[in-house]
């Protein structure tokens, strides 16, 4: 079960530095590659807008 990023994302970049497998890509709203995501939750823990949740 991968994490997903919803429309609350402000593209601040905080989550990218936390991902140990580089599964997050930049954009207007960041995206998490479900094939790379290891479900560790590190990105969700640091998200200032709570935009990241388990799928």
Indicate the low-confidence ranges by residue numbers.
none
CATH fold node name: Alpha-Beta Plaits
* Total strands: 4
| Widest beta sheet: strand line-up | 1-4
The assigned CATH architecture is 2-Layer Sandwich
Give the overall pLDDT as a whole number: 97
The helicity comes to: 10-25%
Number of domains: 1
State Rg: 9 Å
**Under the CATH scheme, which class?**
Alpha Beta
Notes on the protein architecture:
- The chain is an alpha+beta fold.
- About 20% of the residues lie in helices and about 20% in strands.
- It has a two-stranded antiparallel sheet.
- Strand 2 and strand 3 (about 30) form a beta hairpin.
Brief sketch in words of this structure:
The chain has two helices and four strands; from the N terminus they run E-H-E-E-H-E. It is α+β, with helices and mostly antiparallel strands.
Q: Could you name the key traits of this structure?
A:
single chain, 55 residues, alpha+beta, Alpha-Beta Plaits, two-stranded antiparallel ribbon, two-stranded antiparallel sheet, 4 strands, 18% helix
Q: Mind sketching the topology for me?
A:
Layout: E1 3-5, H1 14-18, E2 24-25, E3 31-32, H2 42-46, E4 52-54
